[in-house]
Amino acid sequence: ETGVTQTPRHLVMGMTNKKSLKCEQHLGHNAMYWYKQSAKKPLELMFVYSLEERVENNSVPSRFSPECPNSSHLFLHLHTLQPEDSALYLCASSQPGTGVYEQYFGPGTRLTVT
Amino acid sequence: QQQVKQSPQSLIVQKGGISIINCAYENTAFDYFPWYQQFPGKGPALLIAIRPDVSEKKEGRFTISFNKSAKQFSLHIMDSQPGDSATYFCAASPSGTSYGKLTFGQGTILTVHP
Lengths: 114, 114
What we know:
By secondary structure, chain A is mostly beta strands.
């Protein structure tokens, strides 16, 4: 596996379910990100982990809970979601450092909440 | 002030033509301006990026033009090809963080007709 991988690629869940999205990066990076991509809206940054510490939490509802057990893995735990949470969830990684901002994205998980 | 405004929302160009996508920002702390390209079923991928100390950057058929005083930047795709058909996102990131904190535009769906 190379780059940034995400599983599952597609997920359908009911509003009362609990599920988790998984992201793994094989690039040796130390920062990982979760984004939400909805139709006709800009990518929304949800969470950032740098060196396994959460450094950004952009007013995301508590029904989304991130976890970063090590610098290669990132999870997004989902519970009691709403239909408006249906979207493409993208994971990205980067190598922190002065002036280094390039982010590498995974293919995303297409989430449908019914 | 964190917004990045992108236009047009969609663009249709004939093969061999020039595609132009524009972005504008307000936050003067932004100092890194990348463009991402996204194909269906894939995550965004970095295409080209620029910093405010230069007014233009060219990589192959892709050129970023940057106007610091107007707080605008644009992507030009010369000799557009059907394979360039994708969604393009501009983004901006401020200085002062060790990780990337990208604010994205809404995206432009580019269709290049053969």
